[in-house]
C-alpha cells in the first residue's frame, strides 16, 4: 500500500531527501535523492554485493597499514571490487548484527527504504542460508531528521522492520514485535529476477534439493524486487 489518505512512502522519501539536501546533512555520494543516505562508520562490515550481481556478501579486507584515504575508498563500490572477497551461500557465516540503510524510520521500527526492495530480499536470503535468525537485531543509522511518524497502514508484509535506531543524538529501542521475513516465496519470483541475480538461482537450486516448492510465477513481465517475494510466518 503506497498511499493512505494523502500520505505515501514516496512522499515521505521525497520530504527526507529534500531536507537532507537543503541542510547539507548527508555524506558522499550526492545528491542524496533516490539513495540511502550515507554516514561514516569505523566498523568492519560484511556488505551486500551491489544489486546481488555476483553474490550475497562481500567481506571488506583493507590492506595492512591502510591509510584513511584507502579506508574511505574501501567503503565505495570501487573499494568493494578492489578490497573485498565474496562469501557464498555455503560460507557458513553467522551474522550477529544487521545494519540496514533507511530513508525514513519511525520510533516504532517501521522502515522506508529507497523503494527498490533489495534490503528485504537480502534479509530473506540471509534467513534462507541460515546466516540470521529471528533474534538477530536489525539496526538502522540515520540522521535525526529521518526519524518521522509513519502510518502503520503503509506497512506491507514484505517490509523489514528495525529493532534499534541510531542517530547523532539518540539510541532508540523500538520494541518492534512485527515478524520479520522468514524466507522467499518462490511462486512470486520472476524468471527475470532469477536471470539478474545469480545467487538467487543458486539458492533456488539448494532449496529445490531440500524438497521445498520452488515453482516460479507464471508471468514474465518486469517485476519490482522483493515486495511479494518475502515469506512471513
Task: Explain what the structure shows.
The protein is an alpha+beta fold. It folds into two domains: 3-173, 3-Layer(aba) Sandwich (Rossmann fold); 183-231, no CATH class. The chain contains six helices and 13 strands. The chain has helices at 9-22, 68-74, 77-82, 118-128, 191-196, 198-209; strands at residues 3-4, 7-8, 46-48, 57-60, 84-87, 98-99, 104-105, 111-112, 138-141, 164-166, 171-173, 183-184, 230-231. A four-stranded mixed beta sheet has the order 6-9-10-11, with no helix packed on it. Strand 10 (164-166) and strand 11 form a beta hairpin. The longest helix is centred in the N-terminal third of the chain and has 14 residues, at 9-22.
The mean pLDDT is 83
- SS elements, strand count: 13
Largest sheet: 4 strands, mixed
Kindly report the CATH topology of the largest domain: Rossmann fold
Alpha-carbon Rg, integer = 18 Å
CATH architecture group name of the largest domain: 3-Layer(aba) Sandwich
Ranges where pLDDT stays below 50 over 5 or more residues in a row are 219-228
Note the beta-strand portion: 15-25%
Strand neighbour order, sheet with most strands: 6-9-10-11
Secondary structure class reads: alpha+beta
Number of domains: 2
CATH superfamily of the largest domain: NagB/RpiA/CoA transferase-like
End-to-end C-alpha gap? 20 Å
Highest-level CATH class of the largest domain: Alpha Beta
Order of helices and strands: EEHEEHHEEEEHEEEEHHE
Can you count the helices?
6
Helix content: 10-25%
What overall geometry do the principal axes of the alpha carbons give? globular
